[in-house]
Structures are given as structure tokens and as C-alpha cells.
Amino acid sequence: xxxxxxxxxxxxxxxxxxxxxxxxxxxxxxxxxxxxxxxxxxxxxxxxxxxxxxxxxxxxxxxxxxxxxxxxxxxxxxxxxxxxxxxxxxxxxxxxxxxxxxxxxxxxxxxxxxxxxxxxxxxxxxxxxxxxxxxxxxxxxxxxxxxxxxxxxxxxxxxxxxxxxxxxxxxxxxxxxxxxxxxxxxxxxxxxxxxxxxxxxxxxxxxxxxxxxxxxxxxxxxxxxxxxxxxxxxxxxxxxxxxxxxxxxxxxxxxxxxxxxxxxxxxxxxxxxxxxxxxxxxxxxxxxxxxxxxxxxxxxxxxxxxxxxxxxxxxxxxxxxxxxxxxxxxxxxxxxxxxxxxxxxxxxxxxxxxxxxxxxxxxxxxxxxxxxxxxxxxxxxxxxxxxxxxxxxxxxxxxxxxxxxxxxxxxxxxxxxxxxxxxxxxxx
Length: 428
Hints:
By secondary structure, this protein is mostly beta strands. Helices cover about 10% and strands about 40% of the residues. The protein has helices at about 55-60, 355-385, 405-415, and strands spanning about 10-15, 25-30, 35-40, 70, 75-80, 90-95, 100, 105, 115-120, 120-125, 135-140, 150-155, 165, 170-175, 175-185, 190-195, 200, 210, 220-225, 235-240, 250-255, 260-270, 280-290, 295-300, 305-310, 315, 325-335, 335-345, 390-395, 425.
């Protein structure tokens, strides 16, 4: 085989033919796609010698297409192209070999089939609202000598129906084991089912597959078995179907389960730190399914029981020291009972500040703050006055500084005063 030649289309296979007294030559024959064998030489679409100029020309005239996958109800576009049309038109036909379009001319009256593009080198059509019956091999032909064809396999995906969960009864008891079943029909190819409880994955049995009566789609089913606990009360068991036609979209069904379990209880005091003389409420907080319907209050060392009621609180209108002790609350439902304990220690009374005393305390605080500010101000003022205390300066008469003795200085000073300059004192 010569190098540099384009590879042949996938629909063709090179086979060696050897005749008597003839060299081995390579012919291209159309492959029978269903049987996976070569068509007989006499039925081959083309039988030109590979590597010859005629073969190169035939390759340019060979149309090509591509396989398509579409979801049922969607739209598929079939595109056929050819490099050298040899003044001939392209044609599309369906798996029943009915002509759909010949060039730009519609041949089959089916409004779902529309022309997308028609040129000498391309013929593209669209099929909308695709059904499972539309699946198969579509043929693009060009009427040259000989006629050349290309196949396009259209695969239609069946969308699975929303799954259905069965097997759940009205309610489950704690630690009981249950089995749920999930089923979904209409998928093609067969879908897969998965289970989860809330965000937790449940490991169910492998998905079972059964062909539907139409022979095209499948029904899948799965089951999961697990033991329930009180934490599962109100939980959602979810069955999800996974299929390529959904393109990541969620398609699931959930079943909320109810779990019956024995009650629990705890005692909560109000106020938390009771003192003598206060009002006290002991709340018996019961939890269960069903919720407790009856509460029995007892005090150790006291007979008979203090109280049996549907109310969950034990009330002490005026608490005193004698109320100290250990108290028990028994919460009861038709699933059983539970007893909780609380030790009450009554503390000494403490004065509770009234609103008037609180008001006086606020006023006293404000007054104390003002007095504090005044003291600070007085301290700063006293410090300022000390640093700026007054000074006396005496100005002597002029001329006394140069006198040789005291008498002369007095004479000079008196003479200086005659000029009208008197001795003065200044306060600075």
C-alpha cells in the first residue's frame, strides 16, 4: 500500500484478491455492519483498485456521516457531507429504507423531519420528538456511478420513570429489621438504582434488570434491608435512579419512616438555683414515640407518691428547707416507662434588690463620680497656683551704684529724687 494516502472510511475494509496469473490487488468493499463480514464482491458499493487515480477520485465522492445519540423526546440532526458530488444529489433514508429527503425535496410526509441545510456538498436534516421506534441505521446515498452510501447509527435513550418504593408498613419498632423495594421502568439502556438514608449511603442488593414488553426498554429493581433505631424516627429513605439520559439531574423517591421507641426523661428546675421562699417548678421533659402521656412524681422517703398527672411539672408555690431531697419522675407511654431523678437543695434566702434600691444605687454612683471629678479638678488647680506664686522686685534710685561710699550714695540718691523719680515697688 502506498504511503501518503488518506485512510479509508470506517465503513470499508481492504481485502486482497488473487486471480489466476494476476498479481494480488487490494480492493475496497463495503463492510456488512450487522454480520461483521465483507459483502460479496459483486454486491460491493465500489471495487476500484486502491492506490490508483480512480480510487483517489472515488474517495472524494464517498459521503461520510457520524453516529448520533439522542434522548427520547429530543431532536437529532443527521449530517451527510461529500467532497466531490460529481453533479449528483445527496439523499437520506430511514432504517426502513424510506427516502426522507432527496436534496432539498421532502420525500416522506413526517412533520418531525425538517431540512437543515442542503448544498451540493452537504445534506443535513433534523428529526424532532424522537421516539424509540426511530432508532436504527440511517443511510446517506449519492447517486454516482456506482452509488455510494454512508451509514449513521442513531441510538435513542429511554428515560427511566420516577422510582417507586414499596414494602413499608405504618410504623416500625426500635431494633426491628425492615426491607424496602424500589423499581423504575422505561430506561434504555438499563438504569442503576442506589439507596441512601438522609446523607448516609445504604448498601442495597445489586440492581435487577428485566426487559419491558415493548422489547426496547428495561425495568430495574433493587431492595435494601436495615435495622432501625430511635435516631431513624422521621428519617427519609431515598431511592435514586442513575442514567445517562438524565444528564446529572436528580430522579428519586423518598419514604419517611416512623420508629416507635421507649421514652426517656430528664428533670429541669426553674429557677436553676432555688432559694428558700421562692416559687419552684420541676419540669419533667419526656421524649419518645409516642410521647409520654403520664408522669408520676415521687420523693424518696415519702409515701404515697406526690403527684400523678398528665402535666409534666411539679410546682412548689413557696419553697422551704423541708422540701430538700431527691425527687423522681416516671414518664410512661404505651412503649414503656423511664424514671429520672433530681436532688433538690434549698439554699438560704437572699435579699432581692427592689426597683427603688436599684434606682438609689444608680443615683449614688452618679454622685460619687461627680465628686471624684471635682477632687481631680481641685488637685490640678492647686498644683497650678503653687507653680505660679508672685514675686516682689525693688528698683533702687539711679546713681547710687557708682558712689565711693555710703554718704555719697545717699547724697546721690537724694539728688536723683529731686528729678521727680520716686522709689517705687512693683508686684509682678
